[in-house]
Amino acid sequence: MTSPPEASSGPIKTIQLEDKVIAITGANRGIGLGIADCCLSNGASKVYSIDIGDVGDDFNALSSRFPNQLFAIQADVTKEETIQAAVDKIVQESGAIHGMVCNAGRTKHKAALDFTTEEIEQLWSVNLYGSFYSARVAARTFIKLGVKGSIVFTASMASYRPNKRVPSAPYGASKAGIRNMVHTLAMEWAQYNIRVNSVSPGLVKTAMTYWVEQQPDWEQQLKYYGGIPRLAEVEELGGAYVYLLSDAASYTTSIDIPVNGVIGIC
């Protein structure tokens, strides 16, 4: 396998992932699978989904489009040792890893006074702890291999402001924590040539947001909030991730890219 061009050979002018091996947590479906599609469509050598669940028809369809390039490894992001085992397997099979997308997440919307301790812990264990563990495993591996790696977190527009229709204080707090984590990890790991950034999606059409377009006043909401009057397709997020994972972003670290269509509801 050819190693990606080093920054010392001059700035990279094209946004592509040629020869890169990318791991994405929670990519068996939804946003993660859309990111995988975009990575493969932009030249990634291999993409690995690190997910606790089983793959479905959408994953298999993408795998058939990119034979021998898309793989799934089962792991629980709340248990750092299972992420380490997954990344070790990726390196053993592919010889390297160049990017980690910390995407696995959970959501639950209800009034703050109604959340149980168990529900809060479930959200934070995946969204916060799981993201931190995934990033740390990736960073340790990049350092060990001498790779100028890129870590991209999936944050959320809920980290900036609440969803007025269905608020979730624990969810928003977990995603705000991710954005803060990005700044600190970027500062700590710059010495190792590791870049750390995030993407904040707005409302995206996935299995978790099926209810949004079913609201009886959805069309009225869109007129009121303005912006691009629809939900985003998962693939429309991919450009932000591809850029941040690519060598074209070699001087980009500690930032968040909102992908929200300027829509006022998030």
From TrEMBL:
GO molecular function list? oxidoreductase activity, acting on NAD(P)H, oxygen as acceptor; oxidoreductase activity, acting on the CH-OH group of donors, NAD or NADP as acceptor
Q: Which Gene3D superfamilies match?
A: NAD(P)-binding Rossmann-like Domain (3.40.50.720)
Q: Which domain of life is it from?
A: Eukaryota
- The answer to whether UniProt assigns keyword NADP to this entry is yes
Alphabetized, the UniProt keywords read: NADP, Oxidoreductase
UniProt keyword annotation of Oxidoreductase present: yes
Q: Which family does it belong to?
A: Belongs to the short-chain dehydrogenases/reductases (SDR) family.
Its recorded name reads NAD(P)-binding protein
